[in-house]
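Worked example

This section walks through a single chain of length 174. The input is the sequence exactly as stored; nothing has been trimmed or padded.
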Amino acid sequence: MAKIAYVERDQVPENIQGMYDGLQKKFGVVPNVIKAMANAPELLAGFMPFLGAALGPSKVSSDLKELAILTTSKLNGCAYCTAHHTAAGKKAGLTDEKIAASDDPTSAALDDKEKAIVQYTTELAKNVAASDEALSEMRKHFNDGEIAELTMVAGTFHVLTRFADTFKIDLEHG
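Given that input, the structure is written out below as tokens.
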């Protein structure tokens, strides 16, 4: 059971109601983490466009973003985010083997580019900053813009995993 109230559509400001409607249409449900974040509607209103940009089309492919998200979610111990992004990773094209290896930068299931992401995001999760070695390995596969993007995606999920885990957000049913 969650340790924070889920704010339903009829309880949020009008600008958040539109956000709820969009999420309902896209996913068939408003994720519980969003309902919990709606306890701070002003922050949620600013956060959602950023989250949409982080997850949306960009220079970095969706499968690689999902790999970084899964690494972050697993290492932060967030069952909620791991469950959601296991499904999102599959939809983005990650195999079950790559999903299972998302917290093991030495796994043979990953190619060199994927290993670099897993190592880099592992270091971000464990040490706050990645090592020069991990950054150097990333630069073999990505330009500065792509590295910045992957760093921001991972950072976004440090926020989400900590929020979801602190408040024990329940997985949605159905």
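What to look for: The mean pLDDT is 97.
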